[in-house]
Amino acid sequence: MTTTARAQGATVWLTGLPSAGKTTIARVLGSRLRAEGHRVEVLDGDEIRRFLSAGLGFSREDRNTNVQRIGLVAEVLARNGVLALVPVIAPYADSREAVAKRHAASGTPYVEVHVATPVEVCSVRDVKGLYARQAAGRLKGLTGIDDPYEPPLDPALTLETDLQTPEESAASVYAVLSARGLV
Ligand SMILES: Nc1ncnc2c1ncn2[C@@H]1O[C@H](COP(=O)(O)OP(=O)(O)OP(=O)(O)O)[C@@H](O)[C@H]1O
Ligand SMILES: [Mg+2]
C-alpha cells in the first residue's frame, strides 16, 4: 500500500438540528476521503448512544456528557492521524467549546461545521419521525422545538442544506479541509 495520504488527522464536528443533514453529509464526505486514501471514522450520534453513551438520557447534563465522551474519542482519533467526522447535534455552546478546548490543548485540528437547515425544513424532512411524535405529544424535549439549540456563533463553515444537494454540502466541507491543509 502506498502512503501518499498525509497522516494529519482532524475532527470535523457537524452540529445542527435533527434531520438537518449531518449524517448524510458525513457519509458522503467520508466516502470521498476514504477513496483518496485517508483514514476516516464517522462517530454518529445514534450509534454512540447505543454503546459508549448507553444509559444516558436527554437532560442537559446527559447531553453534555454524551458530547464530552464523543469529543474525547474524536480527539484521540484525530491526534493519531484519523479524520474523525462527527455528525452529532451537540446543542449546547459550552459543550462544544469544551471539546474545542480539548483539541486545542493537544494541538489537534478541530473544524466546527454548522449544518444550518431551518427548523421548518427539518420538520418536513423528519427522517426519524421525531417532529411528528413531538407534535402528537408523544415526545418531549426535541432539540429545536421544546429543547434548546444554541447555534454556533463562529463556525468554520455554515451549510444551507435547503439550497444544496448533499454532494454540494460535502464538497463545501472538503474545501475547508483543503484550505487548511488537512486533505
Ligand atoms: N444538502 C443536504 N445535505 C444533507 N442532507 C440533505 C441535503 N439536502 C437534502 N438532504 C436530506 O435531508 C435528510 C437529512 O437526514 P440526516 O439523517 O442526514 O439528518 P441528521 O442531521 O443526521 O439528523 P439526526 O440528528 O436526527 O441524526 C436526508 O434525507 C437527506 O437526503
Ligand atoms: Mg444523524
Automatic annotation (TrEMBL):
Similarity comment text for this entry: Belongs to the APS kinase family.
Top-level class of the enzyme under EC nomenclature: transferase
UniProt keyword annotations, A-Z: ATP-binding, Kinase, Nucleotide-binding, Phosphoprotein, Transferase
EC number, UniProt record: 2.7.1.25
Signal sequence, start to end: none
Name of protein: Adenylyl-sulfate kinase
Reaction catalysis annotation: adenosine 5'-phosphosulfate + ATP = 3'-phosphoadenylyl sulfate + ADP + H(+)
Pathway assigned to this chain's UniProt record: Sulfur metabolism; hydrogen sulfide biosynthesis; sulfite from sulfate: step 2/3
Organism: Streptomyces siamensis
Task of the protein: Catalyzes the synthesis of activated sulfate.
Pfam family membership, one: APS_kinase
Residues where ATP binds: 16-23
Gene3D superfamilies linked to this entry: P-loop containing nucleotide triphosphate hydrolases
Limits of the APS kinase domain: 8-159
Key word Ribonucleoprotein present: no
Keyword ATP-binding tagged: yes
GO MF entry, a single one: kinase activity
HAMAP family recorded: Adenylyl_sulf_kinase (MF_00065)
